[in-house]
Amino acid sequence: MAFNPGFRKPKGLPQSPADEIRGLISAGRLDAAEKKLKLLRRTRPRDADLLNMSGVVALQRTDLKAAWAHFSKAAALAPDRQDILHHLGEASRLTGQWDAAATAYRQALAKGASKFTTWRGLGLALLALGDATGAVTALEKASAGSPRDQITLLKLAEAQAAAGEGQAAISTARQALALDPASSAARNNLGVLLLNGNFPEEAAEHLRQATDLAPDRPDYRLNLAAACRAAGLMEEAAGHYAEAIRQPETPASALSAYASLLETLNRTEEAEDLALQALEIDPDDAAALLTRAILCRRGKQYQAALDILEPMEGRTDLGYELATSRYFEMGTNLDRLGRYDDAWLAFSRCNDIHDRSDIARPMDRDAFFADIRNARDIFTGERVSRWPVDIADDQPAPVFLVGFPRSGTTLTEQILAAHPSVLATDERELVRGMAQAASSILGRDFAYPQDIDAIEDRHIPAFRQAYRDSAEALFGEAVRGRLLLDKLPLNIVHLGFIRRIFPEAKILVALRDPRDVCLSAFCQNFQLNTAMIQFLTIERTAEAYCAAMGLLLSFEKDLGLQTLRFRYEDVVADLQGEATRILTFLGLDWTDEMQGFAQKSAGRAISTPSARDVASGLYTRALGRHVNYAAQLAPVAADLAPFLRELGYDDGN
Predict the structure, then answer these.
(1) What is the mean pLDDT of residues 534-544?
(2) Residue ranges with strand state E in 421-532
(3) Per-residue confidence band for 16, with pLDDT thresholds at 50, 70 and 90
(4) Before 449, cis peptide (omega within 30)?
């Protein structure tokens, strides 16, 4: 950090000694400069210029305490000197005196300081004080004064993120990276902002490059591991965590993050060991405590889990993810213990935190319903009747598995995935990706789904190939010769598009008692998007269910789809019988390997919240669970009643 050893000639000081001292400082001969300054200060102890230059020498020697003392004395003697006030601000900031730093910077600016470093220093001090909005203003002024200063841009991005301006922060971080694409710090910062903004795939790409540029930075690798986990790249994430914790003096946070991932991968013994290691370093590590509570719950030690979770009440250091996970785990354990009112309260608190989060704030909460309305308006029976039903193609169409979330789609997917001829997609956005390729295929702008008529019959082979290319890019040669099972529950909305591109595709429709579906969706700790944000209240959950399932019923009637309905309750009651019925519809035979689906699932990374439940095999505790929450579900009973009748469920309970 450069400091000006004196902006004006010292009053009364002979020119040659002053110039000599400045020259010594500029040349880095700090011992000689300090020696001469000490001699001169003996006769001029109240000379602000001498004190200022002495402070500069002390700063360059990283003697921050002495530097601050010199600048403080100089500022008291010359309170109108903006250069001295700036230096006092810098010394105060570097010694962690944030209030004093902000005051000194403001005084320097009031006295006419115009250096971008003064604005930057003020921004950094305000950011440390928690005044993110003030920091943004100051750092924007600093950046305007030096638009190519990468450090200022990176700090501005950090301040914007702290102020809740996530998109602006990402844009600023991109500007910073453009100034020096080889900067590992800029790559890392952009990656973290993208991860926090819910863009994990792009975040992972930047963080991979940051790690390549600075392989000795375990913090970069830990960020990369977190991004890979968020992107569903569980095994890659595990590899990065394993590499990061090999470094000496591994922090508890790294061990606990790795433990959490291993728990989701069903490597429970390793997870327990790492969580205990983390707690040896930091007994209050919240992530490690949470992992231990989850492991207790998985071992059916519900009260032991609560004994870990309940003392964490009131902690202000949990952050968004840990706070929501804690309440979710509390609700789940209370439910298993039959304390249903307390469980509902815990789930509600989890959802309240989601509702107030920075992720939820900018979301369009009506987008989900707008998509359903658009799909209903555009994919009409009259329009679809003009589309061909036979497509000449030597490759089988994928099978699409849809249903409202928490209807048993993950369970069914994993049962079918145990068949050697089936490859499951684990909720990859292959259909949406196909729509995004439309502009390239058509050679024109394409708005989905409004421009569906722009797709002519001659374009269909290109869309089908784009879908298969995406699948092969994700799964490699495993795709070849196997039936692709594309499970994404709310592809309900895209069934019209699927009908256009794959008219021969078979559609599996998962059903479950609507009361249990809505209850389970409300009580789940989903990662928020425009669909999952609907589940934060039971009323909105039921509204979303009615809209999506109403669309499904309409599409079943109007689109000429080849569908097979199956019920979650029947799968649980008769796995082989119901699976055989589904396999027959798909042209496959039962294989005994499917009976062991749970063991196979336990060794597979599954991205949905149902992963732990599926790995534990079939269980009946979720059947009729709504009975325990009749009072809480009463406000939506009338809304769900038509679907109970339509789908064949008894609405008398």
Answers:
(1) 98
(2) 422-424, 483-487, 506-511
(3) low
(4) yes
* Confidence check: pLDDT of 1 > 90: no
User: Which residue pairs from 14-22 have beta carbons closer than 8 angstroms and sit at least 24 positions apart in sequence?
Assistant: 18/49, 21/53, 22/53
Backbone angles phi, psi at 399, to 5 degrees: -100, 135
Give the phi and the psi of residue 15 in degrees, each rounded to 5. -60, -45
Q: Helix (H, G, I), strand (E, B), or coil: what is residue 603?
A: coil
- Is the confidence at residue 298, as pLDDT, over 80? yes
Is 47 strand, coil or helix? Answer: coil
The one-letter amino acid code at 281 reads I
* Separation in Å, CA 214 to CA 91, 200, 257: 30, 20, 21
- pLDDT at residue 606 in the model: 46
DSSP string of 78-143?
A: -TT-HHHHHHHHHHHHHTT-HHHHHHHHHHHHHTT---HHHHHHHHHHHHHTT-HHHHHHHHHHHH
Q: Rounded to an integer, what distance in angstroms lies between the CA atom of residue 70 and that of residue 109?
A: 20
CA distance 403 to 568: 11
Tell me what pLDDT residue 23 has.
81
Per-residue model confidence (pLDDT) at position 263: 95
DSSP state of 145: H
To which residue do tokens 């989890």 refer? 350
Report the distance separating Cα 129 and Cα 402, nearest Å: 49
Measure Cα distances from 533 to 72, 166, 367 in Å: 53, 18, 10
pLDDT at 317 over 70: yes
Contacts 24+ apart (CB under 8 A), 633-636: 633/515, 633/518, 633/519, 633/538, 635/538, 635/539, 636/518, 636/538, 636/539, 636/541, 636/542
What's the Cα-to-Cα distance from 323 to each of 55, 293, 446, rounded to whole Å?
46, 14, 41
Q: Write the CB contacts of 625 (distance below 8 Å, at least 6 apart in sequence).
A: 516, 519, 520
> What domains sit in the chain, N to C, each tagged with a CATH number?
367-646 (3.40.50.300)
- Non-local (6+) Cβ contacts of 67 within 8 A are 55, 56, 58, 59, 91, 94
Q: How far apart are CA 140 and CA 142, in angstroms?
A: 5
Q: What is the mean pLDDT of the chain?
A: 91
pTM of the model: 0.79
Confidence of residue 653 (pLDDT cuts 50, 70, 90): very low
Q: Note every long-range contact of 1-9, with CB atoms under 8 Å and residues 24 or more positions apart, other chains counting.
A: 1/59, 1/90, 3/56, 3/59, 3/60, 3/87, 3/90, 4/56, 4/83, 5/52, 5/53, 5/56, 5/57, 6/49, 6/52, 6/53, 6/56, 6/83, 7/81, 7/83, 8/49, 8/83, 9/49
Mean pLDDT over 556-577 rounds to 94
Percent of the chain with pLDDT over 90: 76
Quick one: CA dihedral 98, 100, 101, 106, positive or negative?
Answer: positive
Kindly tell me if the per-residue pLDDT of 618 is higher than 90: no
* 422-424 sheet: strands from edge to edge: 422-424, 483-487, 399-402, 506-511, 562-567
Exposure string over 53-66, b if 16+ CB within 10 A, otherwise e = bbbbbbbbeeebeb
pLDDT per position as a tens digit, 30-55:
888 888 888 888 888 888 888 988 98
Amino acid at position 588, single letter: L
Calpha distance 295→297 (Å, rounded): 5
Q: Is 7 helix (H, G, I), strand (E, B) or coil?
A: coil
DSSP state of 627: G
Q: Residue 95: what residue type?
A: T
How far is CA 419 from its chain centroid? 33
Token duo for residue 127: 């950011």
If 0-12 CB within 10 Å is exposed, 13-18 middle and 19+ buried, where does residue 148 land? exposed
